[in-house]
Write a structure and sequence with these properties.
There is one protein chain. The chain is built from 8 helices and 7 strands. It has 251 residues and is an alpha/beta fold. Strands 3-2-1-4-5-6-7 form a 7-stranded parallel beta sheet, sandwiched between helices. Helix 1 crosses helix 8, helix 3 runs parallel beside helix 4 and helix 4 runs parallel beside helix 5. 38% of the residues are buried.
Length: 251
């Protein structure tokens, strides 16, 4: 890549929704693919169009204090600039509130929210990323808007992410647009064991008017929000859930 070549950074690109986003964007953008597992990142890169153009960033986002230094070093060493950022990395702990250890709380916050904040802060610094950032899209969840037993850490960390989006959309306008995508249930490798349960599958069939989502459904929304077609959209929470959250039917 040439010095200060513009790229789009996608965290959580090693599988599921993150991999689908990377594949969809790879035909029109140079990518920095982030994940913890280098081998799985290589699989994502191989599945992308123009794989030779994309760079890998292996880093554990649970180590929040090291996110900014690691990214800064990568950009400097490779002569890169980031014009788009997609935060897809995430983690979930399903457990009752009384069993939520401080370790689990901090892991949820660090991966789902703090890492995104640290990456954005880094990309806004001219020395690290000279005036390139133009659009940010974070993958939140419909869980940020509702409650569920055992999901207090996940709901809270995704709500923090959405709160940051609204504030930064105002603070960074008109130079940077900031939006979030809120998926419902999506068929990913992580979700498949749960979705394979017959009772739950039937319940979801009733709850989702358009059926369970596919990773590509979320990738399409991300591609739109990054593009010039969304040039007058910022600070918004795009719900992509097959109609789940507007379905009040009782069957």
């Amino acid at each position: 890549m040439s010095p200060h070549s513009p790229c789009t950074l996608v965290t959580g690109a090693s599988s599921g929704i993150g991999r689908a986003i990377a594949q969809r964007l790879s035909g029109s953008r140079r990518l920095i693919l982030h994940g913890r597992d280098h081998a799985r990142l290589e699989e994502t890169r191989a599945a992308c169009l123009r794989p030779e153009e994309h760079l890998l960033w292996s880093h554990d986002l649970r180590l929040a204090a090291e996110v900014a230094p690691s990214l800064t070093a990568l950009l400097a060493a490779q002569g890169l600039a980031v014009d788009g950022f997609v935060h897809c990395a995430g983690t979930v702990h399903v457990l009752p509130a009384r069993s939520a250890s401080l370790e689990a709380v901090l892991e949820s916050l660090n991966v789902n929210y703090v890492a995104a904040q640290q990456i954005i802060a880094t990309l806004l610094k001219k020395r690290a990323n000279p005036g390139q950032l133009g659009s940010v899209v974070v993958i939140s969840s419909v869980w940020s808007q509702f409650g569920a037993r055992g999901h207090s850490l996940y709901c809270a960390s995704k709500a923090a992410l959405d709160g940051m989006v609204r504030a930064l959309a105002v603070e960074l306008a008109p130079d940077v647009r900031v939006n979030s995508v809120l998926p419902g249930a999506v068929r990913t490798p992580m979700a498949e064991p749960v979705l394979a349960e017959p009772a739950l599958a039937e319940r979801l069939r009733q709850d989702y008017p358009l059926g369970i989502g596919q990773p590509g459904d979320i990738a399409a929304a991300v591609e739109f929000l990054l593009s010039k077609n969304a040039s007058w959209i910022t600070g918004q929470q795009f719900v992509v859930d097959g109609g789940r959250t507007i379905n009040l039917s009782h069957k």
